[in-house]
Amino acid sequence: MLEIGKAIVSFDVLEEHFLCDLMKCKGACCVEGDSGAPLTQEEALTIEKIYPIVEPYMTREGKTMVELQGTSMVDSDGDLVTPLVNNRECVFTFKDEQGITKCAIEKAFLDGKVDFRKPVSCHLFPIRITEYKRFDAVNYQKLDICKPGRECGRAQKLPLYQFLKEPLIRKYGKNWYEQLEYAAKEKPWEER
After folding, report:
1. CB of 161 within 8 A of CB of 19?
2. CA geometry: angle at 22 spanning 19 and 26, to 5°?
3. Within a 13 Å sphere around the CA of 97, how many CA atoms are in the beta-carbon half?
4. InterPro entries under this entry (predicted)?
């Protein structure tokens, strides 16, 4: 583990390769799971505020679940998350013309209708961050659904931390990311 600021980063984040291959996985990370996308309180409020703009991009089933449960909820673990359709798929999804599941919030952002891209937990996936009182644990969540992403990343020789540069900077800032990048190149843990 590597400590940068208040974050403890798993070496997997630096050493594993990754590049989403949506043509193969079809956006499975928005569908598979036992809970919705983790949200901060601020993100939940933002999503509630922009919902009328995002709603036209969503599926009928997603809209129905939002009507029943709201734009966020607390799951069985006590975490604030997005609601799910059929206890499986995030309510804020749609399928594009190629059958790839995508984020309605991000689509509204890309279309210039909102200034919020998507929850940072989604933007960072497959990195998962667990926040504790004194530090954040930054870990790579290696799931079977992301096997195409691992294969594509290895083929392109793209480290996970570089693939997720934008969301890591969004979460921790440019200076933090530069320290992470330096550590990845220097590999001080190998000298021990």
Report:
1. no
2. 140
3. 0
4. Rv0495c
